[in-house]
Amino acid sequence: MKFDEFIGEIQHRLELPDTGRTLRAVRATLMTLGERIPAGNAEDFAASLPIEIGWYMTGAVHEHGQRFDWREFVERVSEITNEDGADAAYQARVIVDFVRGAVPESDFRQLRDQLPESPDDENWGKLFELTDSGGWEARAESDPGTDRSQ
C-alpha cells in the first residue's frame, strides 16, 4: 500500500476534513506506540507500512520501551493531535484496526504481546476494542453511529 492510499483510507474512516488532521492522528498514534514498545518490535511492525508512515514508529521516536498505560497513551495522543481524549482514543482504535490489515499477523500479535490488556494492569485492551469486535468495516455496516468513549 502506498502512502496516499494509507492516509486516504484513514481519513475516510475517521471522517476528518483534511489530510493534515489525518496525518497528525496517524503520527500521534504510531509515534506514541513506538515510544511504548521496544525498538526492535517497532522496526518489525513498521517494516510493512509505507516508509513515511513506518518512520513515525522508528525515526520519530527518541526513546523506545517507555512504560505507560492506556490512559497516558490517550493523553499523549490527545496532546499531539489537539483532540479531546475521547476523540484521540477513537482515532487510535481506528488507526490500529486499519494497520492490523497492513502488517503480518505475527507482527500484530507481537505488538499486542507488548501491551498488557488486563483492566487490572495497564488496560491496553481498550486500544484493541474495535479490532476485537470485528473491525471498522463490521461496525460501519452494523452501526452507522460511532462509539467514541474511552
From TrEMBL:
The lineage of its organism: Archaea, Methanobacteriati, Methanobacteriota, Stenosarchaea group, Halobacteria. Residues 138-150 have a biased composition (Basic and acidic residues). InterPro entries: DUF2267 (IPR018727), DUF2267_sf (IPR038282). Residues 113-150 are annotated as: Disordered. It comes from Natronomonas salsuginis. Coiled coil: none annotated. Pfam families: DUF2267. This is DUF2267 domain-containing protein.
